[in-house]
Amino acid sequence: MERQDAEAIYEQGRDVVVAVLMRLDEQVQRLEKRVIQQDERIAVLERQLGRSSRNSSQPPSADPPRVPPRVKGPSGRAPGGQPGHEGKGRSLLEAAAVDEVVDYWPAGCGCGRLFAPGDLVAVGGPARHQVEELPVMAVTVTEHRCHHVICPGCGAQRRGELPAAVAASALGPRLQAAVVTLSVRNRISRRDVVELCEQLFNARVSVGTVDTILARVADALIVPCEDLLDRVRSASAVNMDETGWRLRGGQRAMWGAFTERHAILQITASRHDDHAKELLGGSRAIITSDRWWAYNHLPVRRRQICWSHLQRDFAFQAEGRGIEKQLGEAGLAVCADLFAAWAAFQQTGDRPELQRQIRLLQRRLKPVLREHGGKKVRYRQGRGFSRGLLNLWPALWTFARQPGVTPTNNHAERGLRGAVIYRKLSFGSQSENGEARIARLLSAHTTCRMQGRSLHEYLIQVLHANAHSEPVPLLA
């Protein structure tokens, strides 16, 4: 009996111990899972804290104070021109471009002889020195007088009428074009434009006049901007990017589409894909962009993913730990070799050699992405990044097979840079009409810059044609 009782007590104790151990094991598993989750969260937060323009798409202006400035290391050379450097002097204008010529003759010789007028016979060409200066008053004032006449026949009084081109404004096309150039190209505030016009041109301009001129020119650019949109849509290769905008303080978006010579900018409600589709219309172009989801409606064969963005993404991964660090370092090595191959192609134009180099890089990168995109990889961010690149795999290498396509989207980012600076200085727009107008003005400015032409001279042509009801010149 006692033995049975002892065995029963033993069985009960064993069951209690097993139950306790099972509960402890479950608790340990929960704690281990929580520790893993916390480790992942800490790693993500630490890396988010370390984000900068060097490892993400955020602009350098948003870098925190702890990020050191981009400073090149010392070259070991003295500042300035180096020994053997061929200097570049100021080139002289042709004689036809000179407004005034002043001649200087020597008064005498070192031997003591003073030259008489008959001795002054030029030998060879003169030594030339040109001085460029602004006139005392840059603006000219033309008064248009409409006289009254009494008809000898009926006695009615009649007055002369101003031509429509003259009556349109109290400012001429050149001065109006200068106002727009200062506002859009140089991004000067309305009040500063008024001050500069008074000090530089001795011209009377008000803040309201500046707004009126900007609206007039923007409305005159409707047809040229429609033509720009058609040219971009019909191009074989287009760079696209988007950035933020403000409308009365609210969030908006500015989209930009760029070819080698043309730019079109549009302001929309958001950065969603419906606006990208509307901007592209029926375009069949290859689109170079970042990996923003609004471009995912495009077939991968018609896309080129920006490798500058990928390089920053790989740098972000390389700042992680363990397998993420391995992924980042492997990706950075591929980026370095890819840009070296592209630089060599720019020099030689040997596309078969470029494609051979790219095939080698593909063989190096794809196994790394497959390894880090597998289900067993613990860190989700690196896993998702790798899988995303595998899904976009053909779009990583379009530049190697398609002429006119580059491996980066730097062209679009440079095209939007002026608009971004304008937005920061002006805080965006205050009306929908203002949005449409500044988009047209920025499109014209960016296109002129890409074509190497003067925005001021082009706007003079636009204003002259508009005042005379003539076709406005296009930005072909």
Q: How does this model look, in words?
A:
The strands form 2 sheets. Strands 5-4-3-6-7 form a 5-stranded mixed β-sheet, with helices on both faces. The relative contact order is 0.11. The chain has a domain of 95 residues. Helix 5 crosses helix 14 and helix 10 packs antiparallel against helix 11. It starts with a helix and ends in a 9-residue tail after the last helix. With 476 residues, the protein is an alpha/beta fold. The protein is built from 15 helices and 7 strands. Strand 1 and strand 2 form a beta hairpin. InterPro entries: DUF6444, Transposase-related, Transposase_IS66_central. This is IS66 family transposase.
Estimate the global geometry from the Cα principal axes. elongated
Mean pLDDT: 87
Tell me about the largest β-sheet: 5 strands, mixed
Structural class: alpha/beta
Strand content: 5-15%
End-to-end Cα distance, whole Å, is: 109 Å
Which percent range fits the helix content? Answer: 40-55%
- Widest β-sheet, arrangement of strands: 5-4-3-6-7
**Number of helices, where a helix is a run of at least 4 consecutive DSSP H or I residues:** 15
Low-confidence stretches: none
Output the radius of gyration.
35 Å
The SSE order reads HEEHHHHHEEEHEEHHHHHHHH
